[in-house]
Amino acid sequence: MHSPTPTETADAATDPLGRERSHLAASRAALTAMREDVEALDLRDVAGTWVSAQVLQKQVDERIKALADLAHTPLFFGRLDYLHAISEAESEGSGGERFYIGRRHVHDAGGDPMVIDWRAPVSQPFYRASRTAPMDVAKRRRFGYTGGELTAYEDENLSDPDESDSRSALLAAEIEKPRVGPMRDIVATIQPEQDEIVRADVTGTVCVQGAPGTGKTAVGLHRVAYLLYAHRERLARTGTLVVGPNRSFLQYIEQVLPALGELDVAQATVQELVGHVEVRGTDSADTARIKGDARMARVLRNAVRAGITLPTEPCVVVRGSRRWRVPAYELEEIVRELMGREIRYGAALEALPQRIAHAVLVKMEQGGEAPDDRVQDAVARNAAVKATVKACWPAVDPVKLVHRLLGDPAFLATAADGLLDADEQAALLWAKPPRSARTAPWSAADAVLIDEAADLVHRTPSLGHVVVDEAQDLSPMQYRAVGRRCTTGSATVLGDLAQGTTPWATGSWQEALHHLGKDGAHVEELTQGFRVPGEVIAYASRLLPAIAPGLAPATSIRDLPGSLALRHVPDGLDAAALDACREALGHEGSVGLIAADARIPALAATLTAAGLPHLDPGTETTADARLTLVPASLAKGLEYDYVVLDEPAAIVTGEPDHRTGLRRLYVSLTRAVSGLTVLHAEPLPAELG
Fold first, then answer.
1. Which of 40, 251, 548, 643 is deepest in the core (most CB within 10 A)?
2. Which domains does the chain have, with CATH numbers?
3. 481-524 pLDDT, tens per residue?
4. What is the pTM of this model?
5. Are 659 and 501 in contact, with CB atoms under 8 Å apart?
6. Per-residue pLDDT averaged across 65-88, rounded?
7. Closest CA to 643 of 632, 659, 658, 656
8. Which amino acids are annotated as binding site for ATP, given as ranges?
9. How far apart (Å, rounded) are the C-alpha atoms in residues 140 and 159?
10. What are phi and psi of 636, to 5 degrees?
11. Which of 135, 106, 101, 130 is nearest to 118 (CA)?
12. Closest C-alpha among 577, 582, 614 to residue 596
């Protein structure tokens, strides 16, 4: 917060850029002082115990990390000049206030803010104010940086009726900045429709259907950062999680939250969430689809409860010289009551011996004794009670249960009766059942089944908020696995139905949200692109009628004539790819060579033989290695300044079915930020016109 003095106003008139640079330098010095103050804290006289000292030290260490000054990251990127004072300290004056908007809060030695966190309410007009709704903002200033140095500024006089609307050159430059290294934050370029999603309430689940280049991933990550700012204590207690499609993708986005000062957000793939067993096997597309079907949840429930047996013998407990007898009919009532309550199998298993022990204590009281809780616990541990519990409600090991389900046709038939037909059951069974669960060739879909079984036995702990990206590719059972991690929290679901590239990809967000356990979630659609050039997205959108007929084509704010090149190469496709990569490397920024998975070995050999260094997806680019060789199956979520797309027909035929292949092609076509070159020896898919 700052109200300009007459001297500062005069300085700004003669050297406005110099004044802003001075404020940047002062802000950086203040941030350094804040960090040094934390580093100088002496906790020896504060912490009462060794444990509390460790906890406090951990909090101090995290605070020090959060106050890091990233040299090449602008400390502030905007300024708001309000027409009127909005804080109590300035309310008596007639003038307005000035706020610098940045990635984190910075205050001076007196505690007055020099930079306001972008998530603070006072910062909101920076993203939402317009000429028609200025939100009491007289001027919005954007800053341009080069390598961390403030080099330019640009003003919008929102309350001046004589000033005409114009596109922000600095905003466009920030959006179009070359993509070198991991994904950057978009905190300086958040658009009004994105800001509404970012600041949505923590108690509600939001689903974002976003076309390529609309920034849905960045919106989801910034939403996490906002929620941690607005509800820090709550989410620090319950935890937050970002779920991505693969480890390459998570490596690509992992620097966004730390750049915003948030260090405690876990990241995982669905496979890592359900890592109960080592995955060594694979499934056919049909088998994986069946294993991912929501009906499998009911099959597993039946299997878990298959061992429950109603008692036919009484339970006789001997204590001292007396025998206490609980008849079979009374035991049956207890078991039936637990069966009807629909509580977790493991919770019922823990409750059953206590319930039987309570029945014994009632009889003891009727016999003139006065037992207490210690006696009940002792009875619950009695050998006769344990034997009855084991016979009626045997313990279930989720891994062994799924092992039996996939290897025992009779057991599967019983559990799947009325749910799966004979052909579907046959597709689930192992051709040669392994001897033990330890040696089983578990597939990724099997691990999800085991996770479901584990939750049926013991409830999965819930987090405060979960972000799931590329969600359109999850199966119903995978949605359930993610949903279990936020049963008492909320979620942000991000995806694009047109980019669903698994045989079980969801057909609608309503269906997906139902499986996630968030039926009431609000669905937002982002169609305006900021990354993919208009010429490229228009070409890729020719596939939409075939892959997602209900979706509106995306538009782009970026008009880059010549950004798309189609080249027919009858002979020498590998050499043509090499030439196209060299041509792309002549420009500034990153380059991605995307090809069908089967083409990757040949292209890698060609690049290596030519002495052209190349990286794997997710690996950070450097000045010496800006080219990444990307299998089409890993391209989703990644972006490159220039993309060379090798043989579209091979990408399509590399998938189990034609529609999935076209969707994979759609993903590959929309990874470019500045230019796309398509090379093909075979005819292009007819859907591209």
1. 643
2. 16-177 (no CATH), 308-392 (no CATH), 558-688 (3.40.50.300)
3. 999 999 999 999 999 999 999 889 998 999 999 999 999 898 99
4. 0.86
5. no
6. 82
7. 632
8. 210-217
9. 10
10. -60, 135
11. 101
12. 577
